Amino acid sequence: MNRVKVEYNARAILGEGPVWDQRTGRLIWVDIIPGKVHVYDPVAHTDREMSFGKMVSVAIPTDIGNLLLGLQDGLYLCEMNGIELRCLSDLEAEIPTNRFNDGKCDRNGRLWIGSMDMEARPGAGSLYTIYGRKISRPLEALSVPNGIAWPESGNLMYFVDSALQQVNSYEIEEQTGSLRLMAESRIPGDLGTPDGMTIDRSGLLWIAMWGGGRVIHWDPAKSKLLDEIQVPAKNVTSCTFGGPGMDVLYITSASLGAGPEDQQYTHNGALFSVKLPCGGYGANYFKEE
Predict the structure, then answer these.
(1) Is 289 part of any domain?
(2) pLDDT in tens, 154-172
(3) Residue 265 domain-assigned?
(4) How many domains does the chain contain in total?
(5) Given 48, 53, 97, 144, which residue has the most CB atoms within 10 angstroms?
(6) How far apart are CA 192 and CA 205, in angstroms?
């Protein structure tokens, strides 16, 4: 059994989106509902907050050292100090009941980001790509678009729509970003609901399980559970590899949705870490023009 430690007892309402910035050796993550971006230093054990006064779903470092933010009303660029927001796109401004959810950049610096209804109304969301000034929508009619991961090479992408209780494998057309469904890998409901995820150097997935108090190690090709990490938080939201050897799994969680009956979960909303025998990858940086 891998032993998880509490890295930072944030008591986040909806902690999400951890990204390891290998340039600085820091972990960037968000607390969606209060609109906070956190920058955590695991050496100094300090956490710096930036507050934006509106929901923030993703915070991704860019290739020139800024931050790309997915705020409630659009995509923005800002400096690492949180000052001087510049609107990149007011994507879905015509749907005020939607917000962004999970998002990541691929190795080309292209952003992939999902949208969803704030009340998780089925079929209200989409998956977008943003590269330079070009915006496309490879997937529509999504409910809760979540984890995204790519193997180190090739043209494969893994993607979670939590409402489907599965991980889908897609072939990417590199130039256009269009997707072709290759396979569906269903995850048993007794493990929880699949949320954010990351990929290790063997091409296997580590998936945070909302409501399940765990992160699972999953083989999408065989639809097989390989291992699981018990986490002392009921609603585990996402994970990513980091640390000097890229072998520390950082795990975010939420205090949202945990009630008096969940007393066995002692650190809802904390940031956790666990050292693993395998390793993964740091951030793909968003490519600014």
Answers:
(1) no
(2) 899 999 999 999 999 999 9
(3) yes
(4) 1
(5) 144
(6) 16
